[in-house]
Amino acid sequence: MNEQLTSTWAILDEAHHALRTVVAGVGDGDWERPTPCAQWNVTQVLQHAAGDQLGFAASITGAGWPAYDPFAPDGHLGGQGPAEFAEATMRASAAAWATIPRDATDAPTPLPQGRMAGWLGAGACALDAAVHAWDIAVATGQPSPLTPPLSRDLLTVARELVEPLRQWGAYAAIVPGEDGDGDVAALLRYLGRNPEWTA
């Protein structure tokens, strides 16, 4: 595989690493397994996550939108292997975000909120990749790819963005917290996921 492309946004690079690692760890027989996204299997979650990465990239570059609706993934990856499919979209996303200065105050995004500060837009792109990496990991018996530091950073982003998106079904309602919750659990619960989910 070619050398991995970095975006200059550490939060996005870490999220891409999480997704890349989890995709590589999925067994051949696990792509149809159920996920925390109740209506989608593992392949569909990957297709959705990859489409979102292309959407963020295309918002910046003006080209390269996904050829399918990421919110209605059909589980077909265009004849590519899952790792190859995902890698191409992450590379497009990283390359696009590498053009956005770290002090940008008006970066384009595909979100309903539209343009926003660069750190928040890059964080939103990272949030999407990282949480779907977790979905795939728990669906296929892999360790969580979310670290406490990344989860803290992503929760800061999520609190800026997620509430208006719940009305469109992008995120479920907050799952009540429990004693002993750490940073990873706090992020997942805020995003409407049960940290203890199992297939």
UniProtKB/TrEMBL annotation:
Residues 12-137 form the Mycothiol-dependent maleylpyruvate isomerase metal-binding domain. It holds the Pfam family MDMPI_N. InterPro entries: CHP03086, DinB/YfiT-like, Maleyloyr_isom, MDMPI_metal-binding. It comes from the Bacteria. This is Mycothiol-dependent maleylpyruvate isomerase metal-binding domain-containing protein. It comes from Dactylosporangium darangshiense.
